[in-house]
Structure formats: structure tokens, C-alpha cells
Amino acid sequence: MALELKAPRGTGDVLPGDSYKWQWVEQMARETAASFGFREVRFPTFEYTELFERGMGDTTDVVQKEMYTFLDKGERSITLRPEGTASVARVCLEHGLFGGLLPLKLFYLISAFRYEKPQAGRFREFHQFGAELYGSASPVADKEVIELAGSFLQKLQIKDAVLHINSIGCPECRKTYHDALRTYFESRSVDLCGTCQDRLKRNPMRILDCKSPVCKEIASSAPLILDYICNDCREHFESLKQGLTQDGIVFQVDPRIVRGLDYYTRTVFEFTDPQSGLALAGGGRYDGLVRELDPKMQICGLGFAAGIERLISVLEQNGKFVPSAGPDLYLASMGEAAVRFCGALAMRCRAAGWKTETDLMGRSLKAQMKYADKLNAAFTVVVGEDEIASGMLVLRNMRDGTRTEVKAEELPVRLKELLVE
Ligand code: HAM
Fold first, then answer.
1. Is the CB of 114 under 6 A from ligand 1?
2. First-to-last C-alpha distance (Å) of the chain
3. Whole-prediction pTM value?
4. Domains located in the chain, CATH noted
5. Coil, strand, or helix at residue 79?
6. pLDDT per residue over 393-417, tens digit each?
7. Would you say the CB of residue 309 lies under 6 angstroms from ligand 1?
């Protein structure tokens, strides 16, 4: 049977003509994170399955339906990370990072895996820029994390994303809310999907983010959490709203946002793209996650993650990308000796920081110049027997056609002067 030369469904390749877009978005992520004092953390693509089951909650869609889980050769259950938050909490617990300076502020750029139905903006392998902040219970920290996500979008020049915020309370106030939800959903329980019938008993809030159309329709009239939150949670939420308003951050309170993961407490938020309605970034507070993973540790946390594929798609639609520049210099060669001369010269130019290319195909001079033009090279030099003998080269500016005579050994320095001009 012929080999199927296709990437698996829901995954994608980044081609050389597009990789600069990814590099730029990642660079903006790193710069924004650094400006808020977040440092990078890296962790494995897979973890033991229990981490995600315990961390994200075993009644969530992600855990129940979307995880890539398998037994490894040692018969341990392994899962490809569906997100970064539980892994980062594991990293901090394993390496004692909560014992260091607080608040602890970490960011990551990762691939993540969810077995979802592929559609616009939804992939089975996707990428996230995420940030997590530990150790502050103050609403000022919630504001800071929301502002980090917002600043990142601003830096990308995505100015029309809409910020939605909500509070989903604490385990205490959620008890009353769960009762209200049970009463509401019980009257329609026969119409709910099988998974949600089970959720009705174990965790009725998860019915609110079921993707089945019937469950969605039923959930649209369910009681709202904001009507049930306790005074402390309400104060926290009011203080966050005041802080955002003071900083001039525009937001909408959306009492229907509950987020699809169990670890959230109090603040939840999403930045959505008004055109597609898709969430570009989402996050919130999770004061119980660390204790869930290690009952001896009580440390609050919060964070967000943004989907890189979705951001790139918005930026492409807005025409925000400028194709990457070509090489600074193309060294064209005529004859064997010139190939060797250009090879050595190219190494010196690269060591000086110039993007430099030479002929690797044995092409004619005409074909080499055509190639340099297609690459969009800023300068070219043609090297033949005369240039090797005299050590004098003619540097041609490909934009305006001007020519400058330079000594071969001075080329890297002269190039600097000309490129900066
Ligand atoms: P999430 O809302 O599941 O949250 O994902 C965050 C972002 O990742 C989404 O807003 C979306 O842009 C992107 N995303 C999620 N699933 C897909 C997919 N299948 N295809 C493409 N993009 C996707 C979390 O993952 C939490 N860990 C965020 C967080 C960090 N909360 C606190 N700290």
C-alpha cells in the first residue's frame, strides 16, 4: 500500500515561507512576558495521565473526551499535554519553586494536544503562549495577568479583541450554585447527552460548556453563577473591575463564561476575536489546583494561555505580516577558485553578523544573479579570476543599482556602513 504522505488530521506544518510569522509572534510573547517579569519554563510534552485527571478535573470535556492517552512500554499511562497549567504546577512542586521568591511568575511556549473535531481555529495539535503567577491572592494579581494577556495582543497589533470577564466563585459559594443548577437541569435531564447526565450528578457546572448542540441550548437558560457568589468573592471581583477601569482597560462582564477546566476559582476571562467569535486567549484564577496535586501545599495561582494558530490567522486576515527580508549579501562565483574564495569570504561575513549566501548548485553567473534577485538579496558581489588576483570587489546594491569598490578583507565592515545607511 502506498504511504499516505499527509500530516495527521488536525495537525499542520509551518512552511519556510511562513515560519517568520511564528518567530515574530513568539518573540512578542517573550518580550511581553519579560516586561512583566515572567521567566520561561520548559517541561515535557507528556506527563503521567493522573496529573491532568487530577489537575483539570475528570468530568471536563478535555479529560473525558480529548486526551491523547496511551500505555508506554513500561505499562504506565501517559498523556500528551492538553495544556500547560497542570504541568507548570507539577514543575513547581517537584523542584520546590514555591519555597523561593513570591510571587513566582512563569511563562511558556508549548505545543498542546486535544482530540477535538478539527474545524476553523480548532486543531488536534496546537500551540500556546501561557503565563502562570503563583502566591498572590490579591485582585491586583488578577488585573496584572489580564493586562499581560492584553499587552501581548496590543504588541501584536490585535486591537479589537474583546475582553470578557466573570467570577465563578469559590468552592463554598459554588455549593449553592450547584444545587440551583441541579434543580434546573433535572427538569430537562432526559434531553441531556450521556456524559452530561453523569455530570448532573458529579459536577453540574461542566454541563455549561458541553459542545453538544442540545446541551448548549438547554444550558443557555441555566442560572448564572454571578447571582450566587459569596461576599468575599464579590468583593474580589468588584476590586478587579475597579482596577481594570482605573488602568483604562475596557472589558465586558459575561456571566456565562465558566471556562472548561475544573481548577478555576473566582476570576475567569477570555479575549475573543469579534470576527470569528473564537477565544484568542483564556485564563483565570485557580486557588485550589496546587493543593489538589499536593494536599500539603496551599498556594494560590492564576494565569492564561493564548492560541498561536488563532493569533496568526487573525494577523493574516488583518494583513499584518511583512515577508521576511532576504540575505544581506549574495556572493556569486565564476570558476572553481572563486567558489573556494566565496566560501571563505562568506564565513567571515557571517561571523560579522551578515546573512550571506553563495552558490551551491554550480549555476551559471546569469542563473546565480537571477537566484539572488529572487531571494531579495540586499547586496551582491561577483567573484572571478580578476577579483581574486586584485583582492578588489565590486559591491552592488540591488535596490538602487549603485556600485561600491571595496577591498575583500574590508567587506564585512563596508557592508555594515552600507547596510546601516
Ligand atoms: P484553554 O481556554 O483551554 O485554556 O486554551 C487557551 C487558548 O488556547 C484558547 O483560548 C485558544 O486560543 C487556544 N486553544 C485551545 N484549544 C485549541 C485547539 N484545539 N486548537 C487551537 N487553539 C486552541 C487553557 O489551556 C488553560 N491552561 C489556560 C490557563 C493558564 N488558565 C490558567 N492558566
1. yes
2. 59
3. 0.93
4. 19-170+229-317 (3.30.930.10), 329-420 (3.40.50.800)
5. strand
6. 999 999 999 999 999 999 999 998 8
7. yes
